[in-house]
Each structure stands twice: as C-alpha cells, then as structure tokens.
Amino acid sequence: xxxxxxxxxxxxxxxxxxxxxxxxxxxxxxxxxxxxxxxxxxxxxxxxxxxxxxxxxxxxxxxxxxxxxxxxxxxxxxxxxxxxxxxxxxxxxxxxxxxxxxxxxxxxxxxxxxxxxxxxxxxxxxxxxxxxxxxxxxxxxxxxxxxxxxxxxxxxxxxxxxxxxxxxxxxxxxxxxxxxxxxxxxxxxxxxxxxxxxxxxxxxxxxxxxxxxxxxxxxxxxxxxxxxxxxxxxxxxxxxxxxxxxxxxxxxxxxxxxxxxxxxxxxxxxxxxxxxxxxxxxxxxxxxxxxxxxxxxxxxxxxxxxxxxxxxxxxxxxxxxxxxxxxxxxxxxxxxxxxxxxxxxxxxxxxxxxxxxxxxxxxxxxxxxxxxxxxxxxxxxxxxxxxxxxxxxxxxxxxxxxxxxxxxxxxxxxxxxxxxxxxxxxxxxxxxxxxxxxxxxxxxxxxxxxxxxxxxxxxxx
Length: 461
Fold this sequence. Notes:
Elements: E1 3-5, E2 16-17, E3 26-27, E4 30-31, E5 38-41, E6 53-54, E7 59-60, E8 68-75, E9 88-91, E10 101-110, E11 116-118, E12 122-126, E13 132-133, E14 159-166, E15 173-177, E16 187-189, E17 198-209, E18 223-226, E19 231-234, E20 243-246, E21 252-255, E22 259-262, E23 268-276, E24 279-290, E25 294-305, E26 308-318, E27 321-329, E28 336-342, E29 348-353, E30 364-373, E31 378-380, E32 384-387, E33 394-396, E34 403-407, E35 411-418, E36 423-427, E37 431-433, E38 440-448, E39 453-460
Parallel strand pairs: 4-13, 18-24
Antiparallel strand pairs: 1-17, 2-5, 3-9, 5-8, 6-7, 8-17, 9-15, 10-14, 10-17, 11-16, 12-15, 19-22, 20-21, 20-23, 23-24, 25-26, 26-29, 27-28, 27-30, 30-31, 30-32, 33-34, 34-37, 35-36, 35-38, 38-39
C-alpha cells in the first residue's frame, strides 16, 4: 500500500479551489467552512493560484515535485478568528494492518506573504474521518510531527515532516493540520508587513509500508562550527524509540532521540545506532571546530544627525582577519555592503553611513558586520536594528532659546550636533540646556529607555 499526494498540472482547469474537483481523493473535513483552500498550479492564469507566483502575486514557491501544491491555514492571528484552522484529509487506498510499521512523510513551506510561522504542524491517522465545524480547531493527538515540534519559518525550502508509525489496525484516514488551540500554539513573526496568520504550502504526502523500503540511520551532514557554538546533529524523524548516540570515545550520550544539540570544543565525531521495526543501521557525523576569528566586545549603531549614522565596534582579539565589510539592509534579510574597514588587530573601529538611501519609505535600517578572513572565509556579527523615525517622540519649543524638552518616553541618551555632524552636547534627561550654543540650526538625536530612536532639526534663537 502506498498513498501519496503529488499535485500535477490538470490541463482542462486553469484554477482549482480545493473544495472542488481535480485533487483526487483529498477533501476538507471542515463543514460550514468560512474559508476556501487554494490549489496552486503552473496552469493557473489567475494571480491567486499560480506556481511559483501565487496569493495574488504576493507568494512565491516552486512545487516540491510535479506542478502544484495546496495552500492552507494553520493559524490566523487577526484577533477575530480565534482557533481558526484548515485541515486536509484523505482516505487511504487500503486500511493499515495490525502491528505493521509505516513510514510517513509530507513537505511543508511557509507562504512568504504571511506574517508568522507556527508549530504543531502534524498528521493524524484514524479509523474514522474527523469533522471541523466552521473552520475551528479539532482537539486530537497526532502521531506524526517534527521531533521537538519546532516553529517552521522556512519560506525558501521545503521542510520534511516525517515519522514511523506502528498501526493498531484499521486506520484508514489521514488528516493534516494543527490540532492544538491558539493558546498552545507557538508562533514567530517573520516580517512586519504581510497577510495575517500562518499559511503553508503542502506537497508530496506519502504513507509507505516500512517493509517495502530501507530506512537508514541519519546522523546529519558533516559540518564546521566556530568554537563555542552548538550544532544540531541527526534528524527530526519522529516515532523512533530504539536509538542510541555515542561520542568519539564510545560513550553513550543519549537514547531514544533522532537528533540532539552538541557543543564540542575540538574536532570530533558522533555515531547514531538504531533498530526500527527490525531494520538495524548506523551512521556517523563529523564535526570540525574552527577557532573563533574575532572576539567582539561591542557593536552598536548611533544616529549623529538625520543625514549620518555611526557604526562602531570593538574587538578583543583577531585571528587571520583581513577586513570588515559594513552591511546594511532595509528589511533585515537582504544585506548590501556599504563600506570596508581594514583589520588592525584588537582595536576600536568606526564607520559613518551618510544614509544616502534613506527616504520616507524606510523607518528602520539593519546593520551587520561581514568578517572576512585572509583566506576568504566569511563570518557575521549580530544584526543591529535602528528605527530613526518615531512619531511618539517630540521636542518643544522649536525654535528655542534656552532649553529643549523631549516628550514621548524616558530618555536614555540625547546627542546634539551641528549640521556638519560635530557632537556638541550629550545628556540623559528629558530637558536639555542649550544656552551655550550660538544661534543657528542643529540636530538632536534621541534614544529612549525602551529602544526608540528619533532625530529632529531645531533652531537655536
């Protein structure tokens, strides 16, 4: 018995909504539905349902295989549709057999047009079909989900969710969705602008008798990490029980887990040994630990005035470092190099960004350092986010003669500079004495205790 969902091009339809025909044996268990499921296909001529472009031009993904996939909601976070869910259901070609083991997998990718990702993406096997009234969640204990149940936020790649299931006999339905309520569902925001909720693409659903295939132990890919970092080894295949992990000294370090986090301090290897329904196998993963090329003591961004920002950082030690590329992004995802600073050993560095790309569209900028070794290897600093327009902050009076008062938050730091960027006054209070300045135009840069930033131009009388 083999069950699979591979959504191919159906030439006589340019658009297929999931509750219609064309997707053989798959249906929605939702009655009185408040939403429609979209079947995306390369044949579609409307902007909702194409491949790779879909979701009315806002989503983009190629099929995992074939020509199409289904879009469905796991969570909606608009404040009105509490516990809103879509589910996908199919009847198996034959019932599962008593005490027989099955390998089950499906592939998920987060629709990049939506604001959040979630966990609890699961598959339920059952003797009878489930029903969901008005797209509300169904409480159940699914058998297949990623080990550890992480939030899946990958919008680029297809993520495999797989597991081993030993049948009690008679199971004939599979249902895919989120079987937890909103309170027990974790979410992660992936962007500031987009559609409400977490919508995923799904493709290639398979239920395969384990005795018709060979399941090999999976220790993970050989990899290199920096000293002090952790790395995940193994897989996230659920349903494994007879599993043992060994370190390079043949010590048992874990049991019953398909994967785990390790933090080696030197080059080493790990071995997984598993016995799944009579199939025995072993696998080895090698971890190379590289020396940390840079120890960063400090990395920060400061607004000097509305036309200039300073990126500064300090290193404790540098090993084989050629230079630092200062990189900037308007979305926190795609970065461009805006400057190069040569390495000079453990030291303090500064780089001024003239903000030539800033206009009214960009209220936040993101910065990071690309660290380039002499052999060409790359590593990266943390990302710093700086919002430099904040309508909740204001100054008065303007023009002014004696003092500037800041409204809208408790001040962490105030920096006043002239039009050339020369720093003249710093302070930590909401009222700043400017009587020592000569008449003219100045900039005040404000940072509040809750992390808000703003820059204002004012006139000293």
